[in-house]
Structures
1.
Amino acid sequence: MTFTEEDARRRDLADPGHRDLFRVPPAEGGGYEETAYMAGNSLGLQPRATRDELLGDLDAWAQLGVEGHLEAARPWLPYHELLTEQAARLVGALPAETVVMNSLTVNLHLLMVSFYRPAGARTRIVIEDAAFPSDSYAVRSQARFHGLDPDTTVVRLRPRAGEDTLRTEDVLAFLRDEGDTVALVMLGGVNFLTGELMDLPAITAAGRAAGAVVGWDLAHAAGNVPLRLHEWDVDFAAWCSYKYLNSGPGALGGVFVHERHLGDPDLPRFEGWWSTEASTRFEMTPTSRPPATVEAWQISNPPIFAMGPVRTSLDLFDKVGMDTLRERSLRLTGYLEGLLDEVLPGRPLQQVTPRDPERRGCQLSVRTTGMGANELARRLRHEYGVIADARQPDIVRFAPVPLYSTYHDCWRVAQALAAIFPTGAQRAAATPEEGR
């Protein structure tokens, strides 16, 4: 390979990232102490600050009991407000448009209660065919909830024959030609399988021009690529915090609702104790008085020990900045792609993520026809100390996360793939000639 280990080490010295702020799992194989962790698009690593800050919230409970709601160093009653401005900056929103609450699919359902309002001929929901299964289940169940047939109500946009990713022009053409039948467009900002970054502003504009509501699942986009949700005129969005936002398994997600919808009395919502104005919460009246902010979509009081790791992570993102992370992401992912360009030819491996850096985040998905995805991921981990994410039957996803991944991690990925799938020349070199 043209790219050497020494070259990778030099790049890490010049462009170090923030690996020192995270706990990296020990490697199970490969001769290196730490794992080359490439699965941050599935579960991000633990920030070193998380443990101590979470213990601080636990100590407040032990020392104050119920009085911690108002007297803790980080009081529990308004705790969610500690996350609002940072989360808003992360996704390019106004604070009034942003709240951290619940988990991703729960939030999508709560938002669709408000924004999926089928009527007349306008009933269809548009998603991508390669949507994450949970999104497919959610929109199909919403169609059934409204008495509609999910098989005809849900439109699954597919790539062209022989291609792996959706073309923006094909999405726009569908919305131009059939948009008068569409009630809701709800695509993934970055596709979980292929790593394709959708053209959010163009698709949002086309959907709204067609008279549809446009929402986005940003599970693989938040913390991965810069977002400008308010500027792009997105109606709503939801995201999780356990992937690129490094807030722990099952971490709380986030919600965005554009300010033009806030305070609209005609917009239906499910409500609960936290849906009412904070100043009226303890009046114990039977009627909610929701604020003219996205906090009106809250239902239950926030789980403090789940919010703590999100707050810790958002603080880290706020200090580093998404634009800075995006710049390193382009360099790091481009370096991995250059390595794969040397390794994949002649092997039963194919990159399916778009090659245009502007059409992807920090993920390169590779299709394997030489063995199953699970088996390849198993060998990478146990023989080479590389943790990647498998999606059966044939996709392995590599995510060089700019916060903590290194150029040396990328180099180890390429070395491992080359060793697992030796070329004909390599196999011949490893086999002694007869008679020698």
2.
Amino acid sequence: MITITNIKRVGSEKTESVTIEGGLIKGWNLPEEGDIIDGQGGTVAPALIELHAHLREPGQTEKEDLSSGLAAAAAGGYGTVVSMPNTSPVVDDPAIVRTLIEKAAGLGFARLRPAAALTKGQKGEELAELTYLKEAGAAMFTDDGRTNENARTLRLGLETAGSLGMVISVHAEDASLRADGVMNEGPVSEALGLPGNPAAAEAARVARDIEIVAGLHAQGVPARLHVQHLSTARALDLVRAAKAQGLPVTCEVCPHHLTLTDEALRSFDAIYKVAPPLRTQADADHLLEGLRDGSVDCLATDHAPHTRAEKERDLLDAPSGIAYIELAFPLMYTRFGETLGLERILDLMTAAPARVMGWAAPTLDAGQKADLVILDLTTERPVNPAEFRSKAKFTPWAGETLKGWPVLTVVDGKVAFQR
């Protein structure tokens, strides 16, 4: 049993305490029992939920592993993380799913809900054994890391996943339009002489996938499509239109597409190379409006660690990805706290991901699972990558002063992180 004292609920200035026992919230403002933890006057919220992170295990542990990745997630205030299956080997076998879950459960950090590959080997040709993968504990199906070029295979996957009550999430880019583009196609790529990835590559694929869902929906098939890391205004407008038609289509946006633009690539620093690429300020503004009006369903980080040596290659050869799960909430709160408000940001990172997945919304009510985070909303401190729990100890926001840092994360009633 633990009691966390000196905390405040969102929207209240009243100092309270919460007692946790047996992995559940026992109650509020009870007589203090067990281990007493000072919440330092912080604001308490349900632990964050991450639907899109690359933890690199199995087979790529020089970049990240379950221990470092889930410790980083807990330090970022996350209680649950959905990991992507583009590992070595690919997570397309029920035995791998079970192994990952069992290993993560013994670490004492954030909870792992692995995504499994939609197709065998993520080759886009033959569906993986979706039923068995669900039974093993897979949270969703996705070929993230690769685009689904075969529309028929995706359609069959949506039909099968729909019958299982599962979500399929997609990396929505047309590979032929993207070609060898390493950054957003536009004036900046032209000025730098770098191959561009046009906004049309994302929009064309989103349009195709929405049409597949529309056809299935008309037949009564309960297919659910989730568009990952949406980056362009045009693609968001397509999703917005699909929602207006009542189609079961959701989308996520990443903080890096809100806070960085293709102008950053003028440095020729591959730390800014991501897929889909950083777009224009107009795109970023449009995505922010989507967060405000509800067209964007949730926030996700696409935490994608690589070794420093890999990211020090030139822009043509370096891998895509930014790792920053530890500072996602402080970044959003510092940059957009006034624009979106604390409650909206928290919803986008807690209840909203749960809604996308069809999970019960997290609450802090007595009797509920004790997954919570204490946030220091006032103390400002600089981003210091050397302190990251992740193996990727570098970031575009190094040295930037942020507020909203997690000071305590509790998962299943146990302390997973304490600053």
3.
Amino acid sequence: MPDTQSHPRSLDESSAGEYRCYNCGAFVTQDFARVFGNNDNEVFGCLDCMDATAVRTGGAHQSQ
């Protein structure tokens, strides 16, 4: 399991092939990262650490 205090590894860097939220370290699916993450599939917020409205309006693809 990645250290959540530093940036979690993205799918390309992870041997387990998991995406993680850079804000809270929670697991997110590849589809969530593709849809709500930035162009590198990095997720800076997820449904565990922000509300659904914030995610839908782009809050998950930008660093806070």
4.
Amino acid sequence: MVWMIVVAAIAVLGAGAMVAGGAFNGMRSEPETDDFVPTLPATRMTGEDLQQVRFQVQLRGYDMPSVDNLLARLAREIDQREAELAELRQKVSEPTSGDFLPVSAEDAE
């Protein structure tokens, strides 16, 4: 009786190993890769776009080239926005020919 239980247990374990090994076409022959590429908009990024970014996790953390590429892009966009902001601030602070200049009471006489 004990021998029958041992043989049945071996048969069940063997069948489980065969299923796990793909003997019954249960697994694909080619490996599945986890190549997750974050989708970034072609235009300027917004805060919401940045919150939606997810990176591929690897053995020792996140995929470093993906993180480096995103940081480089954000640095370029911040530099562009700072330059545009400085240009707009300069335009606002400089009077143009059509602007009225403030006149003191002494100059009015």
